[in-house]
């Protein structure tokens, strides 16, 4: 199959995109800024260091639903700028096509991360994985320091009937459809806390949410039996809460 390849600017860098991935949105830059400004200081504190360069082990970072790779690749480059030297990063997606686009972008923008980091370990791995499948997570024993995600969060009926024609015909529904009320990914990962039980989160998670979802998600997490602690939200330039932050209790 042929794909028309386009280019999109995200956080000042050029990313290849085509019909296999969501087109990176400028809104998602809030997730990067929040991670750098609010979460990095917490990571430092948790690890008892004052600069990322002092970490004596690779920081383990995972993105769920990596798509074009714009978030994970940007984050790795920005973290490197502020001192991060050792990293093991995992970009996972259900879509094989998306992973091909992410790999292309990583080869263009961070080629050295795609090389072997010794002992057969790659610093950055892209892994095809459906989060709702139980048994096929291959790094079960690895604890994650940071998980980021901009999951599909649009209610199914909106994807099918109300979305802008341009979006619903040109972007993969798999990247948009968040289930009946749009909360399938949040309920599973945060409220049921699959982030801890399956992906071994021992640290922080930063997730993008739809402009009207943060409040409900806050309530759902606080009222759940999840061991995740709700940390707060971050707003976009229009004043909408578009990012939710949580951490595992120490
Ligand atoms: C909203 S897009 C985000 C893409 C990219 N991270 C960004 O911010 O531009 C969500 C991504 O989740 C992936 N996805 C959807 N369902 C999934 C599942 N069950 N398991 C893993 N990834 C999934 C989609 O293929 C898509 O790439």
Give structural attributes.
32% helix; binds S-adenosylmethionine; 8 helices; 250 residues; N-methyltransferase activity; methyltransferase; S-adenosyl-L-methionine; 9 strands; Rossmann fold; alpha/beta; transferase; N5-glutamine_MTase; two-stranded antiparallel ribbon
Q: What's the topology here?
A:
Blueprint: E1 6-10, E2 13-17, H1 29-47, E3 59-64, H2 70-81, E4 87-93, H3 96-109, E5 124-128, E6 144-149, H4 156-162, H5 165-170, H6 184-191, H7 194-197, E7 201-208, H8 214-222, E8 228-235, E9 241-248
Parallel strand pairs: 3-4, 3-6, 4-5, 6-7
Antiparallel strand pairs: 1-2, 7-9, 8-9
The structure holds S-adenosylmethionine.
- Sum up the overall morphology in one term: globular
- Give the name of the CATH superfamily: Vaccinia Virus protein VP39
Number of domains: 1
Number of DSSP helical runs: 8
N-C termini distance: 48 Å
Bound molecules: S-adenosylmethionine
Calculate the mean pLDDT score and round it. 92
- Please state the structural category: alpha/beta
Low-confidence segments: none
Helix-strand topology string: EEHEHEHEEHHHHEHEE
| CATH domain class | Alpha Beta
Strand order of the largest sheet: 5-4-3-6-7-9-8
- CATH topology descriptor: Rossmann fold
Strand content: 15-25%
- What is the strand tally? 9
CATH architecture: 3-Layer(aba) Sandwich
Q: Summarize the main sheet.
A: 7 strands, mixed
Helix content: 25-40%
Question: Whole-number radius of gyration?
Answer: 17 Å
